[in-house]
Amino acid sequence: MIGVFYARKLYVAAIVLTAFFFSGGTAFAAFDPESYAVDDGVFYTLDAQGEWTKVEGARVGEEDIQGKKIYWYAVSPDTHEMHKDWIGGIYFFGDNGKFISMVKKEDAERSYVQFSPDGEQFILNSGTYVNREYLLYEFDGLKLKKSFHGIGLAWLDPVRFVFTLIDTSKDERYEGAANSGTLFEGWLSVVVYDSAADSLTTVVEATKTEDFMMNEFDGNTGELVITKISVTDEKDWAEENLKHEEIRVRVP
Question: I need a labelling partner for 94 at 20 to 30 A (CA). Which of 1, 100, 141, 156 fits?
Fold first, then answer.
């Protein structure tokens, strides 16, 4: 596919060279969508001579949406010399390799994208293991629709996804629970969000002695595979007291 880009090589080369001279000698200035492309999951840029060059070390995410590819590229300006004048965020490229749009995100290097099966929506998933942020976007226009904190997310269909909700709105299970040795500060419940109805349905709800973590959706049985984490008494929330059990629950 890179061969088709050479038709505009001279035009873009002029842009790149202009950027080179006006940026004090660096060939990589602010992002120019005409100067970057993705071909078969590989990220390319036009160098100062107008030649397409593979960007070494660039990791491109790929989603197969109904036979077409959508690519995404996470940029944090402080992690690569090429990106120092770019805006931090997720840059999207279409099936033809051309740039589509981008979402601003400061911690883009810790983010990844999960598209709905029809490609109409996506989850921007970022943060640490114990505190991940889920941002739901419409792909057309990149409109932010909803945000949650959780772990273990999976799409069920084009409008619904399931995940473990980390709920910090409740009181601590008991005084000192935050220092008990458990990883998560909040209560862990498995929930389903319906973006069409803007509704949240609880599948299994945390109690003072139980947490629930979503592992996977079994498409063959229509069941959610969930880990139940429990203690005998609410004051037992320390690692050595935890009991783990796998349960299966039908999707509501």
Answer: 156
Q: Give the Cα separation of 194 and 75 in Å (integer).
A: 30
Binned average pLDDT, 10 residues per bin, the chain of 252 residues: 39 31 40 91 90 90 93 87 86 95 88 94 87 92 94 95 90 58 77 97 94 94 95 85 94 91
- Which DSSP category does 54 fall into? E
Strand-pair category, 99-104 with 160-167: unpaired
- Taking the C-alpha atoms of residue 4 and residue 182, their distance in angstroms, rounded to an integer, is 54
Buried residues in 33-69 as b, exposed as e (16+ CB within 10 A): eebbbbbeeebbbbbeebebeebeebebbebebeeeb
Judge if pTM exceeds 0.90. no
Please report where in the chains the tokens 């932010």 appear, as a residue. Answer: 144
